[in-house]
Amino acid sequence: MTPISPRQSQPAGLNPLTLSFDKIGELIDGTRWADGFAPRELETLAHYFRAYEAAKDTKVVEEGAREAHLCLIARGKVTIYKASSDGDPKRIATNGVGRTFGEMSLVDGEPRSASVVAEEPTVLLMLTKESFTRMTEEAPRLAVKILLKIAKLTSQRLRQTSGVLVDHLA
Question: Does residue 8 belong to any structural domain of this protein?
Answer without folding.
Answer: no
